[in-house]
Amino acid sequence: MRTLAKLLLPFAFAGLAHAQSAPDGAPDALVKTVTLEVIDLIAKDKDIQSGNRAKLIGLIEEKVLPHFNFTAMTALAMGQSWNKATPEQKKSLAQEFRILLVRTYASALAAYSEQKFDFRPLRMKATDTDVTVNVRVLQPGAQPVPIDYSMEKTASGWKVYDVMVGGVSLVANYRTEFSTVVRDSGVDGLIKTLQTKNRAATPAAESK
Amino acid sequence: MLRSVLVAALVVMAGCATTGEGDPRDPLEPLNRKVFQFNDAVDAAVATPIATVYHDYVPGPLRSYARNFFANIGDVFIGLNNLLQGKPGDGLQDWARFVFNSTFGVFGINDVASDMGFEKHNEDFGQTFGRWGIGEGAYLVLPFLGPSTLRDGAGTAIDIYADPLTSVRPIPLRTGAYALRFTGARADLLDAGRLLEEAALDRYVFLRDAFLQRRRNLVYDGEPPREGRPRYEEDDEKPEKADKPAPEKPSTQ
Asked: Would the N or C end of chain B have less CB density within 10 A of its end CB?
């Protein structure tokens, strides 16, 4: 049971990557800068502290999301089914998956309570285009929780395409769920399922 | 004791259940889902309300003392498991943690060892079996205990048998200790439970897959063999070519 806590809570930090200052900077520096920036912004923001989810989501949209490759994440989570989808379907899938992940981040960040970070230096060659950046979340009385960002160098800077928390890959974890729905009700069925899920998860206070 | 009987009963039931189409790692899915529902119902009716009260009314520092106290007791068998897995350095570190935390940490209520740089480990008999090369076997949802596998269920039976709390007397004190440990653990999971609700399309599947990934990672102490990134068409960001000639060394592949 404790395993689960370690597993899920730190989704909070899953995906804090922002390259405002250095689009070509080292990926590990990027993760560090953005993590600290976001944590700092949240700590200073009274609205977010008192549970303003819309504002928290806005913060994630602005600071974190630019550094994610959502189409790649969706493709990886879809596995073989991705190639069966039409371009429009792919677009809707990526859009809905993005909403789902952002909500999850928001909930996780809201649960953040002053854990300490240990940013591990990355050993990489200048020619590497696919790296894993390791961060560890330290908490007393428990094993540190590793968060690994799988990042890929693209024309517009380093982008995250998967996040592993305590060894659990977010993308891989959706693979079974997605493939089951696609098998039973097709790609459109999956889009519909995601839409329903996203609407249901919208608390009244959050709708614009 | 009751728990080990339940574990044994389930292992027997595992032999009789029928399999349908589904995940090959989870041939007992229909049965597992029933136990999952049962656990959910118990959790919603009993565990969550108690844990919520504990979380809301017991001050943070007190909860932290309790958490550290039980974590410290756990280090004894974490150390043993590290020795059994052929990692004497880690095992000795676990026991050093126990010594420091039990003394300077005042019966373990403060985790001074972590501050001294002795990191806590996560080991149990299920992981030891995995380290020895025993496969995980079918996925199992154990009544009250939650996600497990055949291998980890057997490990959990030994964990429970070896648990130092088992030998605490008088019995009411032991029961109280169990209750406190469980309540604290559940309270620490309240946020995680909400998160699971948020993230999963099907909580059963999401939790199962996360559990199996997590256990695999733990058996390898955080360094399982890494799989490459599969490619699919139309990633919105095309990666830069990885096969550019390296400036200094020629590629070894």
From this structure: C
d(CA A98, CA A160): 13
- Angle between helix axes A70-78 and A170-200 (nearest 10 degrees) is 100
Tokens of A111: 């649960």
**Chain B residue with Cα closest to A107:** B195
d(CA A102, CA A110): 12
Cα–Cα–Cα angle for B110, B50, B114, rounded to 5 degrees: 15
Tokens (6 digits) for B173 = 């004190």
Q: What is the DSSP letter of B132?
A: T
Q: How many residues does chain A have?
A: 208
What ipTM did this prediction achieve? 0.81
Q: How far apart are CA B147 and CA B244, in angstroms?
A: 46
Closest Cα in chain B, distance from residue A141 (Å): 5
d(C-alpha B196, C-alpha B40), whole Å: 13
Q: Which of B70, B198, B233 to mutate to test the interface with A (most CBs of A within 10 A)?
A: B198
- Under DSSP, is residue A129 helix (H, G, I), strand (E, B) or coil? coil
- Rounded to whole angstroms, the Cα distance separating B163 from B185 reads 16
Q: What is the pTM of this model?
A: 0.81
**Looking at the partner chain, which of B111, B217, B233 has a beta carbon nearest the beta carbon of A140?**
B111
B237: nearest CB among A108, A141, A154 = A154
Q: Which two tokens stand for residue A151?
A: 């990042």
**Residues linked to residue B140 through DSSP beta bridges, in sequence order:** B148
Q: What is the pLDDT along chain B (253 residues), one digit of tens a residue?
A: 455 555 555 555 554 444 446 789 999 999 999 999 999 999 999 999 999 999 999 999 999 999 999 999 999 999 999 999 999 999 999 999 999 999 999 999 999 999 898 999 999 999 999 999 999 999 999 999 999 999 999 999 999 999 999 889 899 999 999 999 999 999 988 888 888 888 999 999 999 999 999 999 999 998 887 665 565 554 555 555 444 444 444 443 3
